[in-house]
């Protein structure tokens, strides 16, 4: 059973396994632009100033995507703002970040990405206990008429809620 509540403008979910999830940022356009097929939870290799910037929720996932470089899976174009109290060793905001997944998951994702039209997009980034995790989704791009359908469904749901 999941019990959501809000604290300090963050969504916190308490799971039965006593792990606390604090959502830092979401990519709301991903569900509109893509048809989501599978979801994967991955760890991130981060620098200290990146973690501190994430604690302040300074992240943007809009243009980010997952990409294989060699046999490793990387997060590309995710913008984590510089930590304002960082010194000369502050991180680069748009650097590529390595994603930590099991070998079995990596093989499965690589075989799926070889298919035409599939990509990996991040949907949310969060703290799970004290670790930073990212939810990556295997997705297929929507056509224009699919986007129009989702807009119509959303508008009809709003009209029904009014009455």
Write a short abstract of this structure.
The protein has about 160 residues and is α+β, with helices and mostly antiparallel strands. It has helices at about 30-35, 50-55, 105-115, 145-160; strands spanning about 5, 10-15, 20-25, 35-45, 60, 65-70, 70-75, 80, 95-100, 120-130, 130-140.
Task: Describe the fold and architecture.
- With 163 residues, the protein is α+β, with helices and mostly antiparallel strands.
- It is 26% helix and 42% strand.
- It has a single domain, classed as Small Protein B, Chain: A (Beta Barrel).
- The chain has helices spanning 29-33, 48-55, 103-113, 144-162, and strands at 3-7, 10-14, 20-26, 34-44, 59-60, 65-69, 72-76, 79-80, 97-100, 118-128, 131-141.
- A nine-stranded antiparallel beta sheet has the order 1-2-3-10-11-4-9-7-6. Strands 5-8 form a two-stranded antiparallel ribbon.
- Strand 2 and strand 3 form a beta hairpin.
- The longest helix is centred in the last third of the chain and has 19 residues, at 144-162.
Question: Which features does this protein show?
Answer:
163 residues; alpha+beta; Small Protein B, Chain: A; 9-stranded antiparallel sheet; two-stranded antiparallel ribbon; 4 helices; 11 strands
Percent helix, as a range, is 25-40%
CATH architecture: Beta Barrel
Largest sheet: spatial strand order: 1-2-3-10-11-4-9-7-6
Elements, N to C (H/E): EEEHEHEEEEEHEEH
Give the averaged pLDDT, no decimals: 83
The figure for the number of domains is 1
How is the CATH topology named? Small Protein B, Chain: A
Structural class: alpha+beta
Q: What is the CATH level 1 assignment?
A: Mainly Beta
């Amino acid at each position: 059973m999941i019990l959501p509540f809000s604290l300090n403008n963050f969504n916190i979910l308490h799971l039965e396994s006593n792990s606390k999830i604090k959502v830092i940022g979401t990519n709301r356009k991903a569900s509109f632009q893509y048809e989501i097929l599978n979801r994967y939870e991955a760890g991130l290799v981060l620098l200290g100033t990146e973690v501190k910037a994430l604690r302040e929720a300074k992240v943007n996932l809009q243009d980010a995507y997952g990409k294989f470089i060699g046999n490793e899976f990387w997060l590309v174009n995710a913008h984590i703002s510089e930590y304002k109290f960082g010194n000369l060793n502050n991180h680069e905001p748009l650097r590529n970040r390595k994603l930590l997944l099991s070998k079995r998951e990596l093989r499965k994702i690589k075989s799926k990405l070889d298919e035409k039209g599939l990509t990996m997009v991040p949907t949310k980034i969060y703290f799970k206990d004290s670790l930073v995790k990212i939810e990556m989704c295997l997705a297929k791009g929507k056509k224009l008429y699919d986007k129009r359908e989702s807009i119509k469904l959303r508008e009809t749901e709003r009209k029904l809620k009014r009455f």
